[in-house]
Amino acid sequence: MDKTWNNRAWFLVLPVLVLVAFSAVIPLMTVVNYAFQDTFGNNQFFWYGTDWFKEMLTSDRFHDALVRNLLFSAIILAIEVPLGILVALSMPKKGVWVSVCLVLMALPLLIPWNVVGTIWQVFGRTDIGLLGYTLDAMGIDYNYVANPVDAWATVILMDVWHWTSLVVLLCYAGLVSIPDAYYQAAKIDGASRWAVFRYIQLPKMGRVLLIAVLLRFMDSFMIYTEPFVVTGGGPGNSTTFLSIDLVKLAIGQFNLGEAAAMSLIYFLIILALSWVFYTVMTNVGADRPVKEAAR
Length: 295
Known about the structure:
Elements lengths: L9 H26 L1 E3 L5 E3 L3 H7 L2 H31 L5 H11 L6 H11 L6 H8 L10 H29 L3 H9 L4 H12 L1 H16 L3 H6 L11 H11 L3 H39 L1
Antiparallel strand pairs: 1-2
Helix pairs in contact: 1-13, 2-13, 3-7, 3-10, 7-10, 10-13, 12-13
């Protein structure tokens, strides 16, 4: 017997589709249009083909910014994911302290990105900032405005402070969803703390860790506001990531064609790397039960 489908529910989704079309698809098509054209001004454009893409892909400026972005994202993931797991494991599972810890973890996520940059811009100053003043009093030569290493350390610490809470909350949600029967069975078998984490907690957090890694990778790879407020991409170009370089190219130099080509390449890189992360992590998660069964 054929099943009758009620398609009237699509009318509820239609407003969202229209909103997405205006907020995402139409601007994207505009960027695609600019990426294949050039202009001499007066809003008169002419066909330029794929030359903007060729120039961008062979540009040392683009390559340097891409390397900085990849390095920054790798450092962020290497710090925030293990730290988030550790903090989530340390949080209480019952009692009034659960609410207190959850509220404290959520506070950094409520602060706007530009405010975070302003906070750390002041925090790192050696005259009025607590971090800069303390390091200066300890005899450490710290200056995030003039020293590239200090600038990188400041931007990384700022991102860790701002976004580790997201990983913590996701991991904590995965931990509290584990039934007590798993822990009781592990206790009966005399499993060690590491064995409980390795064979119970970590596999059960697999899906939320996948979400955490994808979100943190995409956010860190697209980071703009915080480092722009703190360092402005400096000193020199040491913290000029792709997003900052893109804004300088489009608004500072008003090179719309080249900036449009760069933004499309930027988008495709994020899409491709996110797909790789998702594929690898889901395949690893799918292989784990098979390996455990084989043991």
